Automatic annotation (TrEMBL):
It comes from Candidatus Frankia alpina. Signal peptide: none annotated. InterPro entries: ADH-like_C (IPR013149), ADH-like_N (IPR013154), ER (IPR020843), GroES-like_sf (IPR011032), NAD(P)-bd_dom_sf (IPR036291), Zinc_ADH-like (IPR052711). Residues 10-315 form the Enoyl reductase (ER) domain. It holds the Pfam family ADH_zinc_N. GO terms for molecular function: oxidoreductase activity. PANTHER family: DEHYDROGENASE, PUTATIVE (AFU_ORTHOLOGUE AFUA_2G13270)-RELATED (PTHR45033:SF3), PTHR45033. This is Oxidoreductase.
């Protein structure tokens, strides 16, 4: 089968199309014939060697396609071997595409619980863009962040997949959403999903200037996020794209009665919750910024790293 293989860590140019063996069958796992694969910033870190993936390696966490045995349309949940606990994954948990061959290929093998029915009404590109950001954001907002209707939400970064998904889900749940961005065009695009304008004084956009009930920080600006919260507010952190370290003044934090909540990815139960949410609410589909043929994965990575897009980038399999 055709796949995108990296023989070394490095720039996008290390991603090259090659012929590789089809995945072997194994008990309790299923094989998905992929029609589309979505990019995530996580894939860039894999390509750079952040997770010490074995070489040669096929990256990719997100995908949509059909089961090879039944033909059922599915999307791939990239959260493997989460376990039975909901507070955190078990020790054997891993992300698809880290140490196992991922979705930049014509076929991929995953545990049966990680091939879930494709939600109706989504294009192939939208379906491929859903699983990682969808389950990650659903868990961050609801399973961990406990967001409810009528609350206010601050989303840091208007353009990424998590941010655009957060705006869509939170607005559908009846929350008031404000996003941050340095690019007015991205603010305009986020507003169409249900977000209000972001201005320098974010707290001025909240009732009585009291601050936000919940902040979703996927960039690593904890101190700034906490300062935007109302007393007793929650900050869910799930990324570090802008900062690897986050100094946080201790006394203001505990006097404010704030919560700092960490999360990443999600369990099959979180994914089931997301699918029920999509059934019960009118949610804007995942925003697809641009599609590329699978063979042009290197160009797709260049576009992702340029940071000029809004929404997800998807590889289409011809």
């Amino acid at each position: 089968m055709r796949a995108i293989v990296m023989e070394a860590y490095g720039p996008p140019s290390v991603l090259r199309p090659e012929d590789v063996p089809a995945p072997a069958e194994r008990a309790g796992w299923v094989t998905v014939r992929l029609t589309a694969s979505a990019l995530n910033w996580h894939d860039v870190l894999v390509r750079r060697g952040q997770y010490a993936s074995p070489l040669p390696h096929v990256p990719g966490a997100d995908g949509a396609g059909t089961l090879t045995d039944t033909g059922e349309p599915v999307v791939v949940l990239p959260s493997l071997s989460w376990g039975e606990g909901d507070a955190a994954p078990d020790g054997g948990w891993e992300i698809l595409g880290d140490h196992r061959p991922g979705t930049y290929a014509e076929m991929v093998t995953v545990p049966a619980e990680c091939a879930v029915p494709r939600p109706p009404g989504l294009s192939l590109a939208q379906a491929a863009a859903l699983p990682l950001v969808g389950v990650t954001t659903f868990r961050a907002l609801f399973s961990r962040g406990r967001l409810t209707a009528g609350e206010s939400l601050l989303v840091l970064g208007a353009s990424g997949g998590v941010a655009t998904m957060a705006v869509s889900l939170a607005a559908a749940a009846g929350a008031r959403v404000v996003v941050t961005s340095g690019d007015p065009r991205k603010i305009d695009a986020a507003r169409e999903l249900g977000a209000a304008d972001w201005i320098e004084a974010a707290r001025a956009l909240t009732p009585r200037l009291a601050g936000f009930d919940l902040a979703l920080d996927s960039v690593g600006r904890w101190a700034e996020s906490v300062r935007c919260l109302t007393p007793g507010g929650r900050c869910v952190v799930l990324g570090a794209s802008a900062a690897q370290h986050a100094p946080l003044p201790v006394r203001p934090f505990y006097f404010g009665q704030y919560e700092l909540i960490s999360t990443t990815m999600g369990s099959p139960r979180d994914m089931a919750g997301l699918l029920r949410f999509l059934d019960d609410h009118t949610v804007t589909p995942p925003v697809v910024d641009r599609t590329f043929p699978l063979a042009q994965a290197a160009l797709a990575h260049e576009h992702l790293e340029a940071g000029t897009g809004f929404g997800k980038i998807v590889l289409m399999h011809d």
